[in-house]
């Protein structure tokens, strides 16, 4: 419930900032505006990651609610930097948040010497007060280059590759991955020599139902146009309530099992050609598909079900 409410904090914080300006507490907003001006570029320069916030007890309750588990298939050498591609996005990227923004599933124990950063849409960092909270766990997408250019390694940038568009396809029982034309994260990895790691989260699409919105319907047309204008999608999702199981915004209690695949070695090429991008992109798709096929039987996925690359 705490996590779901976070998505309503952004407009609330904007309203609070403006409201305080017209009360006797106006100085709070003014002082914050000065801080905001001074700190404006921080979301794209590493943020303010706070281990204390990532270790709050509330995240353990969130982990156990579903439950959420994180598993690795290979070690990650802390001498290198990494780009982790997270699939699928799901409605609210619950697995990505729990596994890579908090310590509740044991990321730091599984991958010692590696610090993970989940990249978020820049829009979330435009809300006063709220921006400072999410900077403690996630970062603006523009931070990727800053983190991957750090010498010494040990940084893992996590990208929900399918993004907001993929959230509109997050229906239970579906395995659609928007990846066929997504090459920006591949180029990012090549420019910095960061190794690529495919990540698949089984159960990510099972925790919410969505109103039917197949491509070609009026609902999907509206959602696609709003997404192209605002940068965020608006899936019409529902599940259970806090005290009843019929209807609400609380997710279903379905297990989420996130598998971190084997790293793909990437040589640094500051200006990769289209052919070089295509080769590495295809290799990444093959590795993600292999990861899915290797583990799907362990999580109730039918043997005849395969990833659908869109």
UniProtKB/TrEMBL annotation:
Major subcellular location class: endoplasmic reticulum
Is Lipid metabolism one of the keywords?
yes
One Gene Ontology MF term? diacylglycerol O-acyltransferase activity
Bilayer disposition of the protein: Multi-pass membrane protein
What biological-process GO terms show up in the record? diacylglycerol biosynthetic process; triglyceride biosynthetic process
InterPro entries hit by this protein: DAGAT (IPR007130)
The answer to whether the entry has keyword Ion transport is no
| A single Gene Ontology CC term | endoplasmic reticulum membrane
Q: Which UniProt keywords apply?
A: Acyltransferase, Endoplasmic reticulum, Lipid biosynthesis, Lipid metabolism, Membrane, Transferase, Transmembrane, Transmembrane helix
Q: Where is the protein situated, by its record's location annotation?
A: Endoplasmic reticulum membrane
Name the domain of life: Eukaryota
The transmembrane residues are: 12-38, 107-125
- Top-rank EC class of the record's enzyme: transferase
Q: What is its EC number?
A: 2.3.1.-
The family note in this entry says: Belongs to the diacylglycerol acyltransferase family.
Query: What PANTHER family has UniProt attached to this entry?
Result: 2-ACYLGLYCEROL O-ACYLTRANSFERASE 2, DIACYLGLYCEROL O-ACYLTRANSFERASE
Identify this protein by name: Acyltransferase
Q: Source species, please?
A: Mastacembelus armatus
Q: What is the lineage of its organism?
A: Eukaryota, Metazoa, Chordata, Craniata, Vertebrata
